[in-house]
Design a protein that fits this description.
The structure is a single chain. With 367 residues, this protein is of the alpha+beta class. The chain has helices spanning 3-12, 20-33, 96-112, 132-139, 189-201, 250-261, 281-287, 302-308, 334-353, 356-366, and strands at residues 37-44, 47-54, 60-66, 86-87, 90-92, 119-124, 146-151, 162-163, 165-174, 178-179, 217-225, 231-232, 235-244, 264-271, 274-275, 314-316, 331-333. The protein folds into 2 domains: 3-163 and 273-366, 3-Layer(aba) Sandwich (Aminopeptidase), CATH 3.40.630.10; 165-271, 2-Layer Sandwich (Alpha-Beta Plaits), CATH 3.30.70. It binds zinc ion.
Length: 367
Amino acid sequence: MNAVDLTRELIRLDTVAGGEQRAAELVAGPLAEAGYTIELYPAAPGRAGLVARRGSGERFITLSGHLDTVPLGGSRWRHDPHAGELDGDLLYGRGASDMKAGVSALVTAAERCPADTPVQVVLTWGEETGCEGAADLAARGALAPAAVLLIAEPTANRAVPGHKGALWLRATTYGVAAHGSMPQLGDNAIYKLARAVTAAEGFQFGTEPHPWMGAPTLNVGTIAGGAGINAVPDRAEATIDVRTVAGQDHASIRADLAGSLQVELEVLLDLPPVWTPPEDPWVARLVAAGEPARAATFFTDASVLRPALDDPPTVICGPGQPDQAHVTDEYCRVSLIEDAVQLYLSVLDAGGRGGLHRAHEEIRRLR
Ligand SMILES: [Zn+2]
């Protein structure tokens, strides 16, 4: 099966936060035929990750993607989200760009690359809900050390040498309940939370903007509290989404923020930023060939996988359209899927024989 047909087959499988095992089994077939040793890691009914390896070496070129997608959303789709409809260069479906095109391209490249290249394919479940599948593979010791980690998230085949980190926090304030007609007998938790939220808006990170990632950001996403109009609330909470840049330490940000806001902060998600200097040979061979790219603002499984792979240089590069992730009538470009297979093959080919220069030339030609 070619990469485009494989993308269509994957789109036909509904993997909205569940059902990833069927997708893993679909790609396990061709990988096994190509000589890969496959390990499936079931984690919940219908949900499994996959790790496939071929070749030998101390470190494996590691290609990774997630099999789950986000839900369809509330708007009506003009194209069937699970049919794999083709219209010229556009292939429609939930997950087309994010990231079934990327998974298909990396699996196809892994099948076709020289058999002596040490390759590791890592496919995860539950990425969209917080990289749970990647964390599961890391915890089970399923991963071999990597020479380089390539994440095929949608970048329209531009090589992106990192992404911001995400630190999601819950701020909770407490007070004393009382009847709404006698507020002087209570202690209003909402007033405390309101002060904390205002402080959050003005919070300064005290960090210089990163040359690729820009400045860290903070957003208060939700706020809740109170049991009724006629009661003094004794509890209120808000959730805060902090996006960090390379060089920032999440533990100290949390401590600083708790100090400024004067509240308790509970960690809901903690994914560190991912960054590899563009001078790194693995990154350079992809970055030099492409247009200048900014670091991605979205997070990826790389935050979780990288430490478990012994900290390899990491590049995000995939055929999906970055502006199509999570949208209604999501599509990807068929031509970019085929280009991505060639890009990955040039990296894999070079990995087997040390042909760095040849890979560079090949990528340049493709542009
Ligand atoms: Zn994704």
